């Protein structure tokens, strides 16, 4: 439904990535290294789509490419923008966390004493966004039950070098429906 809404109202093309372990991808263990490899493969493809698929290359305007991600996908989009800032016209981040460690602190405070022993993924968006120099649009649902919306607020505040930054707090938006609740 999200892609249908976007493509029908904005007349855009979307390249969507199914991370390893999700969707119809291979059922492998999800880890930060593997996810970043997936992101790097997408960047390589978007840089030179004609090397793989001429029809797709013809549909891409290289001057109008945006990275977008929700939740973990927001982390992927942030990472993507950091490794290929010249490739993207802007970044759209929706309901995304500061880091996995910060999420554990907020959602599972009883794990704080042992998290250094059990966390296998860091994903530190909070360390990347201060250096991004492209336009960034942050969206967060104030009722997000998974990623505390304060995380997205802080990412927005920490994006000091962004050419432009905007924040939309969706009243009543939860983790998976802020795009819908927020409307056009």
Written overview of the protein:
By secondary structure, the chain is an alpha/beta fold. Helices cover 40% and strands 12% of the residues. It is built from nine helices and four strands; from the N terminus they run αααβαβαααβαβα. It has a four-stranded parallel sheet. Helix 2 (32-47) packs across helix 4 (72-83). The longest helix has 16 residues, at 32-47. The two termini are 14 Å apart. The mean pLDDT is 88.
Keywords:
12% strand, 184 residues, alpha/beta, globular, 4 strands, four-stranded parallel β-sheet, 9 helices
Entry summary:
This protein is an alpha/beta fold and 184 residues long.
* Annotation, overall tally of beta strands: 4
Task: Supply Rg.
Answer: 17 Å
Distance between the termini: 14 Å
Structural class: alpha/beta
Multimeric state:
single chain
């Amino acid at each position: 439904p999200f892609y249908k809404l976007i493509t029908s109202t904005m007349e855009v093309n979307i390249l969507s990535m199914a991370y390893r372990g999700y969707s119809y991808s291979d059922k492998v263990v999800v880890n930060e290294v593997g996810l970043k490899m997936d992101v790097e493969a997408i960047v390589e493809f978007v840089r030179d789509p004609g090397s793989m698929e001429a029809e797709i290359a013809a549909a891409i305007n290289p001057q109008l490419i945006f990275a977008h991600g929700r939740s973990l996908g927001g982390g992927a989009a942030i990472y993507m923008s950091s490794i290929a800032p010249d490739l993207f016209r802007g970044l759209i981040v929706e309901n995304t966390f500061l880091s996995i460690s910060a999420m554990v602190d907020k959602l599972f405070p009883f794990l704080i004493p042992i998290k250094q022993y059990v966390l296998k993924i860091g994903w530190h968006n909070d360390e990347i966004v201060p250096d991004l120099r492209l336009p960034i649009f942050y969206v967060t649902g104030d009722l997000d039950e998974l990623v505390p919306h304060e995380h997205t607020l802080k990412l927005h505040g920490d994006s000091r070098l962004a050419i432009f930054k905007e924040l939309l707090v969706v009243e009543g938006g939860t983790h998976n429906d802020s795009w819908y609740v927020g409307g056009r």
